[in-house]
Design a protein that fits this description.
The protein is α/β, with parallel strands linked by helices. The chain folds into 2 domains: about 160 residues, Nitrogenase molybdenum iron protein domain (Rossmann fold), CATH 3.40.50.1980; about 140 residues, Rossmann fold, CATH 3.40.50.1980. The protein is built from 15 helices and 13 strands. The chain is globular. The N and C termini lie far apart (about 50 Å).
Length: about 325
């Protein structure tokens, strides 16, 4: 459950995995070798990033439930009606997950250890994803999940396609290097941004834009004041689009970050504000800790190319 800006950013970037995933003990009474060899049929991906991995490989018939937040922060952000009837749960707690009768729960390292232990005590197999910092780690994690759920060939085919897409991004990245960008979120109490060693920074790197926060030597997700924002003065500021989940969930309601940037008098001198270079991108762009970062980079590169084309056209007039 998310209850503050700090917790929100923990949610947005957690689900970042290292490729070296490990298998958890099998359900009580079932040898680990047997449990790992039997493809699960009632999988519960317990985080938005876990949803990305699992739902890229299997259909609703093999998913017992998904977290409510995944509707905004995962591959389920699309209007694919296949998932409309899939049960949802709001928080990573043992009772609602056990009620789904899963035979495998895919979890992230930041999630409650107490809940994980209760699930294992209840005879549920867990597959814990490690932390992820970049595309290479997400690539390895996708292969690991595919092997665990009995779909290694499908995972390998997905990875091959993603490799081609990454190569295409790398080919065109240099034309965007001059674009100084940063991400920014502010839901009314505090501004946040992302430096190096974050998946958002990896997305920017894949797209070819320069993350001014990382260049300034800042790592991870950090708070940022108006004064610091003015000092960085990026060419482009990336913000989140409004969420679709209920208002009780934390997040960017009604485009709060963009509204603040456009109406805060002290920020009126920012180049991105003056020249309307604020790019609203879907919430999953900020949240993805999976192979979906490739999709995020493609989206960002398309938006930046369009902005550069508009700027070039205006300069010629």
């Amino acid at each position: 459950m998310i209850s503050s800006s700090r917790a929100l950013f923990a949610l947005l970037v957690c689900g970042l995995f290292v490729g070296a995933c490990r298998r958890e003990p099998a359900p009580v009474g079932i040898p680990a070798s047997v449990a790992a060899s039997v493809p699960p049929t009632r999988i519960v991906p317990a985080s938005s990033s876990a949803v990305d991995f699992v739902c890229a490989l299997v259909g609703p018939e093999r998913v017992a439930g998904v977290p409510e937040q995944a509707i905004d922060y995962s591959i389920l952000h699309s209007s694919d009606q296949r998932w409309a009837k899939t049960p949802r749960f709001y928080a990573y707690q043992a009772e609602p997950l056990l009620a789904l009768a899963p035979d495998l729960v895919v979890v992230c390292p930041y999630q409650s250890r107490d809940t994980s232990e209760r699930l294992k005590d209840g005879g549920v197999a867990l597959f814990e994803l490690g932390e992820i910092a970049n595309w290479r780690d997400a690539r390895a994690a996708l292969l690991a999940v595919g092997e665990r759920i009995g779909l290694k060939p499908k995972a390998e085919a997905l990875v091959a396609d993603l490799d081609r897409r990454v190569a295409a991004l790398v080919e065109t990245a240099s034309r965007r290097h001059a674009v100084r960008a940063m991400c920014y979120s502010n839901f009314g109490s505090q501004g946040w941004t992302a430096g190096s060693k974050t998946t958002i920074d990896e997305i920017m790197e894949l797209a070819g834009v320069t993350n001014v926060v990382a260049v300034a030597g800042r790592e991870g997700h950090q708070t940022i004041s108006f004064e610091e924002l003015i000092t960085l003065d990026p060419d482009v500021i990336i913000v989140g689009e409004p969420l679709s989940t209920p208002a009780s969930s934390a997040g960017d309601r009604g485009g709060a970050s963009e509204q603040l940037l456009m109406h805060e008098a002290s920020l009126s001198g920012l180049r991105a504000v003056r020249e309307r270079r604020i790019l609203p991108l879907p919430a999953w762009f900020f949240a993805t800790g999976s192979h979906e970062m490739v999709h995020g980079a493609e989206l960002l590169s398309t938006e930046v190319d369009a902005l550069l084309a508009r700027t070039s056209g205006a300069a010629k007039q």
